[in-house]
Write a structure and sequence with these properties.
single chain, 574 residues, alpha/beta, 2 domains, nine-stranded mixed β-sheet, 18 helices, globular
Length: 574
């Protein structure tokens, strides 16, 4: 049974310097009702000297090579129309070495951005996919961000997690055992102490507070860090986490094989489940579930109630003749239903979570993940990075591996290890004892998790199961140090029929340093004119700036019964 969520009587707005950011970050908060340690607020500092003067000082960093240090002028980078202040850009690498395949050069490449006027905080930016390139160290989160960690004054680091995709030909780094471990978790463990020492040299003191965050694989990095390195960070921002990434990749391959059964063009999996047919499913689920939260608005807030009410086989129209985009054939239903109910082995044992049928199903992002990525990304990940032994990269055919490979064998390979690969993918990629976050809790740390309900690659139900397990490990309530927010309609990390623009960074900082737990977070749709960019997936009948509260699980944004359905003030978390 859904337990009632205790809400603050009076919402409190987050105080930020940028007006738009303040609106997006606004959230109701309550003091933490526990005896957990309360961490103090970070204190700002100024950079000691110029960027160029830093170079010789950084030569003392162990196992580190600094390539360049330069100044970046104020306004050279803008986020949502807001100018990022002057800062130093430090580029370097750690642990340069030679590895496999064929004497490939490896290093943990990184860049750090150090504001001249620093807020006393450190941000580790977890990047997505298979890493392999150093993304700008900005600390972006949320769809079309109008704020980020760098804009707010954090010192930010970004890395390639120990390999360069240009040198390894993408997933080829999986042939090197150490590269697998760096990608999984060791790059974070190696970079973090170095980054904190670099900060101490630059500002005359180390960071008062440290945070790690990202979405997708970046969310996985954050959750793994919470399990492995809780003493290194005070706050963990976990977005759409692929913390069971190896299993999720095999599950997406399972889905591709299901689609293959009903694809009218064997070279195009999207012909198995066209956009028009996916929209027909969306229409069917909205008919059953849209009004469960009190408002008929094209959004399904009560995901759990919808899963109990909606039946894919029964409620989606069945074609009585040819497929025409308004129905699914019996063969389609039989092929597609197991994808939603959860991937399974040949003897019917489930090995990954189910996926809710949600309003974002018809979006192009869903099609890309299920019909394209399954052939060209998941194949390389399972075959070369996660599997033991790895496939031979010479002549490796990703689409053929996906469409003809044995699911049971793939699943066994991600649990396997040998004398060369001493940790299985399910060991180096996942958080050990994932629901035991007792060390984070004991140190006063906080974990804020968000996940799009329409995410087609990492299931929100998997994250929900993790959170339920964490709750159970804490006497049924972990909300004093960990909270989970579902984002209805949101695709993988952004887009979809969703309010996908929100400032979770400020919410996490306020929780960690002021003890103000987020009881809801303001989220905005990105229609025409949005400073963070337009979300092309938004339904035409939505307001361009629709807002909604994101509610901590198991809370549901529920219509009050009056007021505009475009305005978050008309909804309350229940």
């Amino acid at each position: 049974m859904r337990t009632p969520l205790r809400l603050a009587v009076v919402p409190r707005a987050l105080i930020l310097s940028v007006a738009m950011v303040a609106l997006l970050a606004a959230c109701s908060t309550t003091p933490v009702r526990s005896k957990l340690p309360q961490l103090s607020e970070a204190k700002s500092a100024m950079l000691a000297g110029t960027c160029e003067e830093l170079t010789p000082k950084l030569s003392v960093l162990p196992n580190t090579k600094i390539t360049s240090v330069k100044s970046v002028a104020a306004g050279e980078i803008k986020i949502g129309g807001n100018a990022v202040a002057e800062h130093c850009l430090v580029v370097g690498s750690m642990y340069d070495r030679t590895g496999e395949p064929e004497a490939t050069p490896y290093a943990i490449g990184f860049e750090m951005r150090l504001p001249k006027n620093w807020n006393g905080r450190f941000w580790y930016q977890g990047n997505g996919g298979i890493d392999g390139s150093v993304q700008p160290a900005l600390g972006n989160l949320g769809g079309g961000p109008v704020t980020n960690a760098l804009l707010q004054g954090f010192a930010v680091i970004s890395s390639d997690a120990g390999h360069d995709n240009r040198k390894t030909r993408g997933p080829g780094f999986g042939l090197d055992p150490q590269a697998r471990l760096d990608y999984g978790y060791q790059a974070v463990g190696k970079l973090t102490p170095m980054a904190k020492e670099l900060i101490r040299i630059a500002y005359g003191k180390g960071p008062d507070r440290s945070y790690i965050g990202g979405c997708s694989n970046g969310g996985r990095h954050a959750l793994v860090a919470a399990a492995r390195y809780p003493e290194m960070y005070d706050g963990f921002l976990v977005g759409s986490p692929g913390f069971n990434l190896p299993k999720a990749a095999v599950a997406n391959i399972f889905g591709a094989q299901q689609y293959k059964k009903v694809a009218t063009d064997p070279k195009d999996l999207s012909t198995a489940f066209t956009k028009q047919e996916r929209q027909a499913v969306v229409n069917a689920v909205l008919a059953k579930c849209d009004a469960l939260d009190g408002a008929t608005d094209g959004m399904i807030q009560d995901t759990d109630a919808c899963e109990a009410k909606f039946n894919f086989m029964r409620d989606v129209p069945t074609c009585t003749g040819e497929r025409n985009g308004t129905c699914l054939s019996e063969a389609q239903k039989k092929a597609i239903a197991p994808i939603f109910s959860g991937a399974s082995t040949s003897d019917g044992k489930p090995f990954y979570a189910s996926f809710p049928v949600d309003a974002g199903l018809a979006g192009p992002g869903v099609a890309n993940w299920e019909f394209v990525a399954s052939l060209n990304l998941d194949s390389g990940a399972v075959g070369l990075i996660f599997g033991v032994p790895p496939q031979n990269p010479k002549g490796f055919d990703g689409p053929n591996f996906t469409l003809t490979g044995n699911i049971d064998a793939m699943l066994a390979s991600i649990y396997a290890k040998n004398a060369i690969f001493k940790e299985s993918a399910m060991e180096f990629m996942t958080p050990p004892n994932a629901t035991d976050m007792s060390r984070v809790k004991a140190m006063g740390g906080k974990i804020l998790v968000y996940h799009g309900v329409s995410d087609p690659i990492f299931s929100v139900n998997d994250t929900e199961a993790w959170y339920n397990g964490t709750q159970a490990a804490n006497g049924g309530d972990a909300s004093d140090f960990a909270r989970f927010f579902r984002v209805p309609g949101m695709d993988h990390c952004r887009d979809g029929a969703a309010t996908d623009q929100f400032d979770v960074i400020s919410s996490l900082v306020q929780w960690v340093e002021q003890g103000q737990a987020p009881d809801w977070i303001m989220a905005r749709a990105r229609g025409a004119g949005n400073p963070g960019g337009r979300n092309e997936d938004l339904p035409a009948n939505w307001s361009a700036d629709r807002t909604r509260p994101l509610c901590p699980y198991p809370g549901v944004a529920t219509y009050k019964g009056s007021g505009s359905i475009e305005d978050a003030s008309s909804f309350v978390c229940k």
